[in-house]
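Weekly puzzle thread! Below is a chain. First person to post its structure in token form gets bragging rights.
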Amino acid sequence: MKARITLVILIALASFAAQADNSKLRELDPLKGTWTCKGTAFAMGDTPEHPVAATITGSWILGGQWLEVHYTETKTAKNPKPFAVRAFFGYDSELKKLVLGSIESDGGYSTENSDGWQGNSIVFVGPNHMGGMTMNGRDTWTKTGKNTMAYKFELEDKGKWATAIEETCSK
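Winning reply:
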């Protein structure tokens, strides 16, 4: 009898935790759908500053546990090597944080986490591995209207944040 009660309590706790995780995951809903973005990639290394245009598509996969996002820049004369990213957003119940893992067309990858939306912004921070080095990266999405969002990616170098890309996106 005691074993059954313990089992029932464990199932109830697991169900409650899954519901809590699911509600935290739903915070990512604003990032789903198809977005068109325009902005600036700032000079980094031997890459000069240039305008960027990109499409972002996001959809829930694997039973709604992951939001898969594809970011694809458009090739232009000023952007002859367009950047592409595959990102996966989820929730880590141990950390109690939203998480972001991404792989990039230049061979880089990142793992970041977030406490969730703070007002109109959500910020993910964590190590970004690229070009033989690791730096903290910061991805920030800010709701600017019903179907518009600002996006900024920054890198931390020696304690200072530098903007790598800024875009305005709309559905």
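Puzzle host: Confirmed. Bonus trivia for everyone else. Confidence is low (pLDDT under 50) at residues 6-20.
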